[in-house]
Structure formats: C-alpha cells, structure tokens
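Sample entry (87 residues):
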Amino acid sequence: MAGVRLASMNKHVHLIVPELFLPRQIASQVCEGLHLPALETILSRARLQPLPETSLEDWLCAAFGVPGQAIAPVTLLADGLEPGEYY
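Predicted structure, serialized as tokens:
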C-alpha cells in the first residue's frame, strides 16, 4: 500500500446493535451521566438507511447472501441445543 493515503480510503461498516436505544420511559434514568464519545462519533458519521421490518436473522442472511433456512442450525446451537441429523 505504498503511496496510498489512509485518509483517502473508503471503508464501509455495517454496525448492528440490537436494542441500542432504550425505551423512553427508562432511558433518562439509566443513561443519566453516561458518556460514550466513541459511540457518539460513530453515530454522528453514520448514514441512516431505513430497512424493511424483518428479523435480525433475516437481515443478516440477506446482507451476506445466506439462504434463510441455513440460519436454523446456527440459532439452535446458540440456544444450547444440538441441531441433529435433519439440519
């Protein structure tokens, strides 16, 4: 990468943080005095892209080109169960 300035490189990151924003009823109490400068910087530079209402798993499968049914064994393992021979 000789001669390439890092500042001119375009990098795209998809940041997914489920339930990042708390419900308004409790947010002011829970977040009082909370300072997150790195998160503020990332969010201030972000581009908002409205997405269709779908599950997180469906969005991830679509984003990475994975057929929807392929996620079932992975989520089963995440729940602490064994997929078995039929997955």
